[in-house]
Amino acid sequence: MMKKYLFLLSCFFVSILTNAQQFDTNKLDLYFSSLEKANKFMGTVAVSKNEKIIYSRSIGYSNYENNTRSNANTKYRIGSISKTFTAVLIMKAVEEKKLDLAQHIDKFFPSLTNASAITIGHLLSHRSGVHDFTDDENYTNWCYTPKSEMEMMAFIEKGGSDFQPDTKSEYSNSNYVLLTYILEKTYKTSYATLLKKCITDPFSLKNTYFGGSINTSNNEAKSYTFENNWIAAKETDTSIPLGAGGIVSNPLDLIKFSDAIFSGKILKDESLALMENIQDGHGLGLFKQPFYDKQGFGHRGGIDKYTAVFSYFPSDHISFALTSNGSNYNNNEVAVTVLNTIFGKPFEIPEFSTYQINAEELAKYNGVYASAQIPIKITITNDGKNLTAQADGQASMQLECTAENIFKFDKAGIVLEFKPGENVMILKQGGGQYIFNKEK
C-alpha cells in the first residue's frame, strides 16, 4: 500500500556481502540514538538468529501528543506485509484442498473483467492484470471512510484490466483484496477470524491482528510526518486494504512469523517452495531481498505514514523486521545499517547539522528548475522559514538547510546544492548528480 517518491532511485537492498561477524549492538544503539536525537526516525527493529532474539530496539513515540514512548510491544500497521499473511492463508487452504492455485475466479467474481482467465495463482503472484485501485486519482478522497465489499468491488471492477492475465507481473493491491474475499467466502467467516485461528493463536503472535481504528490505549502507534515537529497522519480505514494492508503487528511478532514460515512450521515444504518461486520479480506473497552475497526473502509495507519490512536469510537462519510510524530519513538506510551490523559490515553513525537561514536568503532559491538529464521539473518555494521542493506530479518535500546553499531531504536520500549566481541547482542521490537550470 506504499506510494514512492519519483526521486527514489535506489533499491531497498544492495547486493554484495561477506561472512557474518560479531554483532556490534553497542554501535547500533548509538546509531539509533543519533536518529532519535535528530527527530529522523520513530519505530522498532528486531533480529533473531536460530529463532532466538539477538537484538531489539524501539525509539520515538507511539503517541507524540501525549508523550507516550514506543516500546518492544508497541503495535504498528504493517501495510503490505499483510500480503504475506494472506498468501500463507491461501496456501493453507490449498493444502486443505479447499482452494486450488489453478482455479479461475469467475465463480467468486463473475462480473470482474477477465475473471474466467484469472486464477488464484495469478492473484497471488500479481499476474492477474487487475488494476490497482490505489493508483486511482481520487483514491485519497475516499480511503479514510469505511467501505463495504460491494463498494470495494465497484471500485475494482471500474478499474478494469491493465494487461491480459499471465502475460507479465505488475503489483496490484486489488489482487489481495480479492484474495481476502475468496478466503471469507470459502471459510464463511471473516478474515480477522481466519488470521487469528490459523496463524496468530497457534504461533502466539499476541500483538498481531487485523486492525481497526487506531487505539493508542492498546499500545497502538499513530503514524506521523515531520514538518518542524511530528504531525499525526490520517488513518486509512482498514475495510479498504483488508488482507492487502490491514494487519497490525510489530517486529517481535514479525520475526516469529518469519521463523515459523521458513522453518516449515506453518506450511508444507512444497507450499513454501511455491511461495519462493520468483517470476518477473514476484513470488507468492514474497519477494527476493538480496543483501550482498546473501539471498533473503520477505516483503515491505507502507500505509499512511507507517513503513515496515521483514526479511529471512536462510543460509544464516536470520530474521529481521523493522516497523516505523514516522520518518524524516531514508528508511532504506536504516534497514541497510541494521543488516550491515548483522553481517559484520562497516557503517557510519550519521551526524546531523542545521544551518540558520533567513527569509531573504531563502527567496534567492525560488523558481522552476529543469534538467536535460532527467525529464522532470522541480519547483522551489519557501514560506519564510523553510524551503520546499516539488517535482511534477509529486508530493512536496520540506527541505532541511545543512550548510550554505546546501539542502537535504533525508527521507529519500536527496541533497540539493544551489549556485544562485549561476541559476543552477544540483540534485544528488544514490551516487548520481543531475544538473538543473532555473528557468527564466
TrEMBL record:
InterPro entries: AmpC-like (IPR050491), Beta-lactam-related (IPR001466), Beta-lactam/transpept-like (IPR012338)
Enzyme class: hydrolase
MF-aspect GO terms: hydrolase activity
Keyword field: Hydrolase, Signal
Signal sequence coordinates: 1-20
Residues in Beta-lactamase-related domain copies: 44-331
Domain of life: Bacteria
EC number(s) recorded for this UniProt protein: 3.-.-.-
Coiled-coil intervals: none
Pfam families registered for this protein in UniProt: Beta-lactamase
PANTHER family xref list: BETA-LACTAMASE-RELATED DOMAIN-CONTAINING PROTEIN, D-ALANYL-D-ALANINE-CARBOXYPEPTIDASE/ENDOPEPTIDASE AMPH
Name of the featured protein: Serine hydrolase domain-containing protein
